[in-house]
Amino acid sequence: MRSHQSRIRRRRRRLPPGTTVTDLRMMRRALELARLAAAAGEIPVGAVVYRDGEVLGEAANNREASTDPTGHAEVVAMRQAGERLGSWRLIGCSIAVTLEPCSMCAGALVNARMARIVFGASDPKAGACGSLMNVPQDTRLNHRCPVVGGLLRGPCAQELRAFFRRRRAERRAAAASG
Ligand SMILES: [Zn+2]
Fold first, then answer.
1. Which of 16, 24, 47, 75 has the fewest CB neighbours in a 10 Å radius?
2. 13-22 contact pairs (CB < 8 A, 24+)
3. Distance, CA 135 to ligand 1 centroid (Å)?
């Protein structure tokens, strides 16, 4: 009994207000995709588009492999979801993404009529969902989208920090070896 209750407490601690256990499940998957991306030398950001608990699109940042300047996880996952639904309007869909969306992705999410944005770590350098600007909630645009940040913030940020630390070390080693 006690262990059951403490399990519930642990789960509640991980869920910021406005997020659900489905969001948590999707964010865990996004984090898994981010880890796979890191192993392939991509900046580790993952995203999952879902509706009613069903995954409609999932991707990691793939700019290196695709040589596509728009190859951010959110954009790639949204393209899949659009194909799957046969519509560019992602009505009723949520997205879980490990890093706060940038201005390009936030703009694309608003254009897709995304119903909710759930992100993990904040991005003070490029975040456009509350950090540098708040595109999804700009009242001048014709669609607004609720945003919740901080779901699995720690592990999402840790994945990025570890990636950049490894990359710096590799570059130092390469420079030292001439
Ligand atoms: Zn982006």
1. 16
2. 14/151, 14/152, 15/151, 16/148, 16/149, 16/150, 16/151, 17/148, 18/146, 18/148, 19/118, 19/148, 19/151, 22/50, 22/53
3. 12
C-alpha 1 to ligand 1 mean position (Å): 44
Digit-coded pLDDT (tens) for 44-91: 999 999 999 999 999 999 999 999 999 999 999 999 999 999 999 999
- Catalytic residue, chosen from 42, 58, 74, 100, is 74
Tokens 């997020």 found at: 19
pLDDT in tens, 85-128: 999 999 999 999 999 999 999 999 999 999 999 999 999 999 99
One-letter identity of residue 157: A
| Residue 74 annotated among the catalytic residues of the structure | yes
